[in-house]
Amino acid sequence: MEFITFAFIVKAVIILLVFAITLGIAAYSTLAERKISAFLQDRIGPNRAGPFGLLQPLADAGKMFFKEEFIPETASKFLFILGPSLAMLTALMSSAVIPFGDKLIFGSEIVEVQAIDVNIGVLYSFGVVSLGVYGVMIGGWASNNKFSLLGAIRAASQNISYELAMGLSLLAILMMSGSLSLREIAAQQAGNLYGVIPVSGMNWNIFYQPVGFIIFCTCAFAECNRTPFDLPECESELVGGYHTEYSSMKLGLYLFAEYVNMFVAGLLMSTLYFGGYNYPFVDFVTAQFGQNIATLVGTGALIGKALFFIFFFMWIRWTLPRFRYDQLMNLGWKNLIPLAIVNLIATGAVILIKETFFK
Asked: DSSP letters along 21-87, please?
């Protein structure tokens, strides 16, 4: 079969690895959540399933698979099943355009470490993320439960509100980079900081857009329904929110999709603001050990940055209480959106001044 080239095989392997890494990290994020909460609360956490509790995610998966399957009699059965499936599907799709590394060289073949390289990767990511709320909305409405419906309505209004501020904060990055490609945005952060400080791989956007990053990170908490923005599943008010009526693996898909979204959010923040696969002295590593080793180190650096953000998400969850719903909406509409607009105008002014007087 002539169309199956070496590059095609390598790209297929990369796609499978991205899928496996995403699922693996999401699975062990459930264990990390319990361990971190236990540490912060001076407890031990799960330690029975395997050495140090390392098999706990497998035990959780087994429990979910073998629990009784239950669909309410008055539920819309097709949509009831579609909701969690759609939530999980959109969560996994969003990692397809993340550049996990620079490039691998095999003789005359050059393969980019990215599942799908599209020149509108930013639009793709946010389009898929926006679709994720439909899984929540469909599940909440199809349950025919007033608490589920209230949770779904909260999720929809919360996502719409915070996507505006997130998009405005992202526009500043797009103005600076002049590209919608996540690979291009990551590649532009490979140089020296401010073009002067002699440390390659440190020209990260966080040094140019600290306010934009704070806005983006805050909105990422809301998009992932993480505390203090977990109002759609607020158990003290809505029992369990949009997944109140779910059990077995359908509930598992909703819960697991949240951890996949956390990992993808960490990857996006790392790519947009923290250099992506770039790391300090990347040129030195490339010169000493070759392009392939430097690329693999960069892949590890990107995953390490994403893992830090997952830890940060969990740290905040077990530190801050959740907002009231009116506080959540006021923060989004009255604070983050105006701040994002001011940041956008300031970025445009700086770019204009730079191009006019410092060409």
From this structure: HHHHHHHHHHHHHHHHHHHHTT-----SSSGGGTTHHHHHHHHHHHSPP---TTS-HHHHHHHHHHH
C-alpha pair distances (Å), 170 with each of 25, 45, 225, 284, 308: 26, 38, 20, 31, 21
Alpha-carbon distances of 278 from 99, 116, 190, 263, rounded to whole Å: 11, 19, 6, 18
**CA–CA separation, 354 and 20 (whole Å):** 44
Which two structure tokens, joined as six digits, stand for 36? 């971190």
Query: What secondary structure letter does DSSP report for 161?
Result: H
pLDDT tens series, the chain, 359 aa = 455 677 678 778 888 888 899 999 999 999 999 999 999 888 888 888 888 888 988 998 888 888 888 888 888 888 988 988 898 899 888 888 899 988 888 777 788 888 888 888 888 988 888 888 888 889 888 888 888 888 888 888 888 889 899 999 999 999 998 888 999 999 988 878 766 677 777 889 999 999 999 999 999 998 888 878 887 666 655 566 788 888 888 888 888 888 999 999 999 999 999 998 999 888 888 888 888 899 999 999 999 999 999 999 999 988 888 888 888 889 989 999 999 999 999 999 999 988 887 76
d(CA 157, CA 147): 16
Distance CA 359, CA 345 (A): 21
Helix axis angle, 248-273 to 210-223, nearest 10°: 170
